[in-house]
């Protein structure tokens, strides 16, 4: 319903502007149909709709509301560098045509006025649409991290508390079962012990299911970097040393979470700044480093903070420190006005250590 209202509102607004410029009759009707058709296709073909809006704006000198709406929707789809290049080329061509038309028209507008109009009607809606998409992606990644940390916490709590209690029940029931009891009580105790063992087995199954969905391991890092690059983040990935197997799934998932959380916090620390991801395979450990540097704009002497994870204000760093510690590693975070650096050391398997040496 909202979509149809928007289509009608844009068509009515731009048609009214054209009518005020003196158009009428079939020209006005054809223009209204064209605007409505472009707005109807903006969800499915945002770039095509934006190009059509630019063409209508050149031919009619109007289409103000149509330019804003189609530009905003096109901004939602600008994801890769090629999309940015194509959009920039199209806008440059549109600016050239508009300036040429303005110069040839009697009493034409000043070039700066034309450029300001183009910026307000096309560039700003494009940037606004792109910004909102990046914010939504950021919020989605943070929600996923929160959900995964909560799932991990629940699995650990269930294993530590309920598993311990069920084990005690099972042991005490087994002790009673071995003692001198009447036959009917012995059967009841035997059933209690069997029920406790069954409950413990089901608990371990549930905990295992939760932990299997904690996320990928090292194999998921390439996809994570590719998604960030597609979102416009300049990420440089470096690998050194000889890669060897990690001790288990917990360590591999911890490495992935270090990269994910580090990239998220680095982008939040300095949006637009290049980020460096380093995987350094040492003889006895894997060093994972995520860092970005912001060019200094003020005199030196500014102080920052260096401390345990979670003291820098990054979302999820405290939980990440617990995960890395549970995997037998160490995590350090450095966050200053011009630098963010996250370093994690994860141990390698004993067999892998010998192989790497």
UniProtKB/TrEMBL annotation:
Main EC class the enzyme belongs to: transferase
Residues annotated as transmembrane: 48-72, 84-102, 114-133
Record field: compositional bias (Gly residues): 302-317
E.C. number(s) listed in UniProt: 2.7.13.3
Swiss-Prot/TrEMBL keywords: ATP-binding, Kinase, Membrane, Nucleotide-binding, Phosphoprotein, Transferase, Transmembrane, Transmembrane helix, Two-component regulatory system
All residue ranges annotated as the Signal transduction histidine kinase subgroup 3 dimerisation and phosphoacceptor domain in the record: 150-213
Pfam families in the cross-refs: HisKA_3 (PF07730)
Keyword Transmembrane helix among record annotations: yes
CDD domains: HATPase_UhpB-NarQ-NarX-like
Chemical reaction(s) catalysed: ATP + protein L-histidine = ADP + protein N-phospho-L-histidine
Protein name, entry field: histidine kinase
Organism listed in the record: Streptosporangium longisporum
